[in-house]
């Protein structure tokens, strides 16, 4: 580097000294800093990698400065990950890595041999091992990661070593190489929230790690190999992000991890800068503790040999506005969740659970009434309304609320016609003192016979939780076309029983013949669990076709539809729901009683 000679003056450093200081600084940086490049790095082909070669890699142990550590090549394992997917086996050297071993979050660390980029650190060997042995994804595979197809080897799969490799004495028998764990940073989520969803998170190769969020910085997008980058799943008043190390940068294309994140193929996740607070050393599983910073682009590809992203604007997320109300007070929270069929339902559930349980207005032992709506571009609103009473188990009272939200989103994304474009969701959860729940103990009709067109009163005996029984009254109407001498069926029940009696297997289904709009119609028609229902059924078949109910269909038409090669969601029920009434009780209802009514 050439420097222009400064103006002479009594307060300036001598020119020779300035040149010397600059040269020393450049030499030190060249020895310890990763190359900051936005162009294609000089690479070492896998064909030139040999056992015994010495090299180095970069990763961050604390702060934002990538540190260099040494390594030595043990050998190359051809076709290890799959056909033409080899792995370089290395041993990490140096006091830090020998103390920590292979650290969660280190995946993607750029590995250099002979001064050339050879690959990305991606695999670790076993646990409790005395030597830090790791696997490296060759750089040719990393740079082609965006071209690989989805459905490759999932991130949580382990790869047993060959007998030949074991016999060489490099590793103990029975060990296996596994993808380096990816720290999943939960900020604003209680440990209870993570524990309750562990069964759904397990198997993804993720490890829950402490961390938080950091305010955006002007230099967040100034990346170099060895820096940390986060993949944002939830942001706002609480956040969930995963963190990996940057392997290489080509123009605005960023390559990281060296293995899949969740093996989702083509994705659209916000990419954010991550800052390492410290590296926690553990004999079981060392991990980096990170804060996730400002958005810097979009993660666009998640495949077998790399996660790739593009610097620039982040993708839009689904806004979740949650209001918790109790005792006349309200508290509002805002989250933003990624849109992905495999992730969104779970993340919506976790965000709802965390926003409710970590709310100062929330308390266990209360009845929770949920109202909300989901907005979809080009479609009707999806309406949510249900009540949840506290239980006698150790499960948090808010857990069923979260599962209810997850179920609706799972059904929306499971439709086979179009991917839902969700514009947002609003939830209002009101916490009511005490346990408000009811059991149907008995029911009776005011009389056992009725004429066509006559209204009949139905009385129901309900027992509240630890309270005095109460009687509610409803009315059902005998239809004009009811045949004299026929016996009608009156079902007094909770919402679930009447939904199934009137909708058959279409109740709770994930698809409809007419597409997403019909599915939304089915969801909105489902009855609410805080009401007691009385439904009068005629002994005449009902034809159900997607979201349409066609009672009293002639047998000739039923036979035609039953003879179709692909009847789809068409089904026939033996009875037709002719009349219905309900009473709101303010808490969930359970139970069912069947009554008979004769037509005279």
What does this structure look like?
- There is one protein chain.
- This protein has 600 residues and is α+β, with helices and mostly antiparallel strands.
- Among the domains are: 340-433, no CATH class; 438-599, no CATH class.
- Helices cover 17% and strands 42% of the residues.
- The chain contains eleven helices and 34 strands.
- The protein has a six-stranded antiparallel β-barrel. The chain has a six-stranded antiparallel β-barrel with strand order 12-13-14-17-16-15.
- A hairpin with a 2-residue loop joins strand 13 (239-250) and strand 14.
- Helix 7 packs antiparallel against helix 8.
- The longest helix has 18 residues, at 15-32.
- The protein is elongated and about 95 Å long.
- The N and C termini lie far apart (106 Å).
- Residues 1-31 and 148-174 have low confidence and may be disordered.
Task: Report the portion of residues in β strands.
Answer: 35-45%
Largest sheet, spatial ordering of strands: 1-2-3-6-5-4
The helix/strand class is alpha+beta
**Tertiary shape:** elongated
Oligomer: single chain
Helix proportion range: 10-25%
Give the overall average pLDDT.
Answer: 82
Q: What is the β-strand count? A: 34
> Which blocks of ≥5 consecutive residues have pLDDT under 50?
1-31, 148-174
Helix tally equals: 11
Alpha carbon gyration radius = 32 Å
Largest sheet: 6 strands, antiparallel, barrel
Query: How far apart are the termini?
Result: 106 Å
């Amino acid at each position: 580097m050439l420097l222009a000679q400064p103006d002479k003056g009594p307060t300036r450093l001598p020119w020779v000294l300035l040149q010397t200081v600059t040269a020393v600084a450049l030499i030190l940086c060249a020895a310890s800093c990763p190359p900051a490049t936005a162009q294609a790095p000089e690479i070492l082909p896998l064909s030139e990698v040999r056992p015994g070669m010495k090299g180095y890699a970069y990763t961050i142990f604390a702060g934002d400065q990538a540190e260099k550590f040494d390594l030595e090549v043990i050998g190359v394992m051809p076709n290890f990950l799959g056909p033409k997917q080899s792995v370089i086996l290395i041993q990490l050297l140096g006091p830090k890595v020998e103390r920590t071993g292979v650290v969660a979050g280190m995946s993607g660390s750029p590995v250099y041999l002979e001064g050339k980029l050879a690959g990305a650190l991606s695999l670790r060997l076993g646990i409790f091992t005395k030597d830090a042995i790791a696997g490296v994804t060759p750089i040719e595979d990393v740079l082609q990661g965006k071209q690989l197809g989805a459905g490759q080897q999932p991130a949580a799969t382990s790869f047993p070593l060959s007998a030949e490799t074991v016999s060489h004495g490099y590793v103990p028998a029975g060990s296996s190489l596994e993808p380096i764990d990816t720290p999943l940073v939960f900020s604003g989520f209680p440990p209870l929230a993570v524990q309750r969803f562990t069964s759904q998170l397990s198997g993804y190769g993720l490890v829950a790690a402490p961390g938080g969020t950091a305010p955006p910085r002007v230099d967040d997008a100034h990346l170099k190999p060895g820096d940390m980058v986060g993949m944002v799943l939830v942001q706002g008043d609480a956040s969930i992000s995963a963190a990996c190390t940057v392997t290489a940068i080509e123009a605005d294309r960023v390559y990281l991890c060296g293995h899949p994140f969740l093996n989702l193929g083509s994705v659209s996740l916000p990419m954010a800068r991550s800052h390492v607070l410290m590296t926690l050393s553990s004999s079981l599983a060392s991990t980096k503790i990170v804060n996730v910073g400002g958005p810097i682009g979009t993660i666009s590809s998640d495949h077998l040999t790399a996660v790739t992203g593009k610097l620039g604007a982040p993708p839009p997320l689904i806004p979740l506005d949650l209001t918790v109300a109790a005792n006349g007070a309200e508290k509002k929270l805002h989250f933003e969740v990624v849109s992905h069929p495999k992730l969104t339902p779970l993340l919506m559930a976790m965000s709802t659970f965390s926003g409710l349980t970590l709310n100062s207005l929330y308390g266990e032992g209360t009845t929770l009434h949920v109202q909300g709506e989901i907005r979809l571009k080009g479609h009707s609103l999806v309406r949510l309304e249900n009540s949840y009473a506290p239980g006698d188990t150790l499960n948090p009272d808010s857990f069923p609320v979260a599962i209810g939200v997850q179920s609706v989103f799972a059904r929306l994304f499971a439709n086979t016609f179009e991917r839902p474009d969700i514009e947002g969701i609003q939830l209002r959860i009101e916490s009511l003192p005490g346990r408000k729940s009811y059991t149907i103990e008995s029911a009776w009709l005011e009389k056992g016979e009725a004429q066509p067109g006559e209204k009949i009163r139905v009385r129901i005996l309900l027992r509240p939780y630890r309270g005095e029984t109460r009687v509610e009254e409803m009315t059902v109407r005998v239809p004009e076309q009811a045949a004299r001498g026929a016996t009608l069926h009156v079902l007094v029940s909770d919402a679930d029983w009447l939904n199934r009696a009137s909708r058959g297997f279409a109740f709770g289904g994930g698809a409809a013949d007419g597409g997403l709009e019909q599915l939304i119609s089915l969801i909105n028609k489902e009855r609410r669990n805080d009401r007691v229902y009385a439904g009068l059924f005629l002994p005449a078949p009902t034809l159900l076709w997607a979201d349409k109910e066609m009672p009293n269909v002639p047998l000739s038409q039923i036979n035609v539809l039953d003879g179709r090669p692909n009847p789809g969601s068409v089904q026939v029920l033996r009875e037709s729901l002719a009349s219905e009434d309900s009473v709101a009780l303010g808490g969930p209802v359970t139970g069912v009683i069947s009554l008979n009514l004769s037509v005279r």
